[in-house]
Write a structure and sequence with these properties.
This protein starts with a strand and ends in a 7-residue tail after the last strand. It is built from 18 helices and two strands. Helix 2 packs across helix 11. The chain is globular, with a radius of gyration of 23 Å. It is mostly helical. The chain has a two-stranded antiparallel ribbon.
Length: about 475
């Protein structure tokens, strides 16, 4: 006896294994970003013991050596983005993401010993290797999301996943400062996220899965719901993955514009992530604990605004007739041009106006949160089959911005207390943000490209209608 799966397939569990996968991606981003960002605060503590816990060793680093140390993970991540995007697109993200988490966590745990043994030169080398490994995470996140996320849920689930990066930044700043001032000292800011990464890996081995069909815990209803939705969006009925159309990707105008836009946003975001603790220390001279909390504040607001963008996007797509291009470009404009205005304002606020300066930094960072929906998910729009690879290419350029940014700032800001030197940095970033988003607004596209491997079928029914009916044996629907 058989029954149609019309209701059972379309009414998949409200909370299911797909949400667990997104939770894994969220926490992976949180832990790896925390392991990378902890150095932004820890470097203040380890070079100035009196600002934190004087019971732990202090190391002398010049401003250039600090800049090289902060940029070292980005040097490495430039080299692995493309390879990770290709491997995750072809073979899935589970094993690759597991290796990434284990290796970067072990390196994080070893960081204090490395500094003691070999000074900043060995620290640079080890952090470079850590960056090599970390760089592979970003394409994995979007590859895995594309395999598990129906198009109708992409903005919501993708936005939630992206906020893990915000949480990681907050923890990297706030937790590092608090731990550095505690009896555990600055080394604990590397130990704690490293140990949590090992614990994450154990759960990922058990519950992670490349695709719904590989999961041991998913219900048949949820699996059908995801697979039918992805088939409808991609026009892909299964089989082997299509060959990678390298030439078409690298010469695709919509993708080139997207990559340049992401690079412009990376210039602002990485500069703020890396340099806010230095800026606050140089201009306001706060203790390490106060510095860490002030540095984390913009990213706390960023996290809240990220969920605001998610709810706004969900409301607009469900209740208003708004096209995806207008939605993406409007939100991305907010995420690029508001920070540009805020940084220009910050350049001219009096150094005695702490509240005004913090408001500018909070506004700049909070608005950046919109780029996850405004442009990051555009990789999935252009090519669901190669979303991880596309993100690997664009994130290689973004990592290059992470390399160049601290070096340029190290050459420009030779005196952390000189407001005029910081002004040059902030005004330059504002110009880059404006131009990058202007190109995206004019030339960006939000449709699946022909080189994706298979064009989606023509839409003949509204998006809210159910997938086609399918015969499913009733006895297979066992949820318990």
């Amino acid at each position: 006896m058989a029954i149609t799966s019309f209701n059972l397939v379309t009414k998949a569990p409200r909370w299911g294994i797909r949400h667990l996968q997104v939770l894994f991606l969220f926490t992976a981003g949180t832990l790896i970003v925390a392991q990378r960002m902890n150095m932004s605060v820890a470097i203040v503590a380890l070079t100035n013991a009196n600002s934190s816990n004087p019971s732990y060793p202090e190391y002398y680093l010049t401003e250039k050596e600090k800049s090289y140390t902060l940029s070292s993970p980005f040097w490495g991540s430039c080299l692995t983005q493309l390879m990770s995007g290709y491997l995750s697109s072809r073979f899935g993200a589970k094993l690759l993401l597991l290796v990434i988490m284990v290796v970067t966590s072990l390196i994080s745990i070893a960081t204090p010993m490395v500094l003691a043994w070999g000074g900043w030169q060995l620290l640079f080398g080890v952090r470079f290797v850590q960056g090599l490994v970390m760089g592979g995470m970003w394409p994995c996140l979007y590859t895995h999301l594309a395999k598990w996320c129906p198009k109708r849920e992409a903005n919501r689930l993708g936005g939630v996943m992206a906020t893990g990066l915000d949480v990681g930044t907050i923890l990297g700043f706030a937790m590092s400062g608090i731990l550095a001032a505690s009896p555990l000292g600055w080394p604990s800011s590397f130990y704690i996220p490293g140990y949590f990464g090992i614990v994450w890996s154990l759960f990922w081995i058990r519950y992670g899965a490349n695709t719904p069909s590989e999961s041991k815990f998913i219900s048949l209803a949820e699996r059908k719901h995801i697979e039918l939705a992805l088939e409808k969006a991609q026009g892909n009925k299964g089989g082997d993955s299509p060959p990678v159309p390298w030439l078409q990707i690298l010469t695709s105008p919509p993708f080139i514009v997207l990559a340049l836009c992401k690079m412009s946003q990376a210039c602002s975001f990485y500069t703020l992530m890396q340099q806010i603790p230095r800026y606050i220390h140089g201009i306001f001279r706060y203790s390490i604990a106060v510095n860490a909390l002030f540095s984390a504040l913009p990213f706390v607001v960023m996290l809240m605004s990220s969920y605001g963008f998610i709810f706004l996007t969900e409301y607009l797509t469900r209740n208003k007739e708004i096209s995806l291009p207008i939605l993406r470009k409007t939100i991305n404009s907010f995420a690029s041009w508001i920070p540009a205005v805020a940084l220009v304002t910050l350049s001219y606020v009096s150094e005695k106006n702490v509240v005004g300066s913090m408001c500018c930094m909070v506004a700049a960072v909070a608005a950046i949160s919109g780029q996850a929906i405004g442009s990051s998910l555009n990789h999935v729009d252009l090519s669901p089959n190669f979303a991880g690879l596309l993100f690997g290419i664009s994130n290689t350029l973004m990592s290059a911005a992470g390399v160049v940014s601290p070096i340029v700032i190290g050459l420009t800001v030779t005196n952390e207390s000189d407001r005029s030197q910081w002004r040059v940095v902030f005004l330059g970033i504002s110009v880059i943000l404006f131009v990058g988003n202007l190109m995206y607004v004019i030339f960006g596209q939000m449709t699946v490209q022909a080189w994706n491997g298979s064009k989606p079928p023509a839409e003949t029914t509204p998006q809210t209608e159910s997938p086609p009916e399918e015969e499913v044996p009733v006895e297979k629907f066992n949820y318990f």
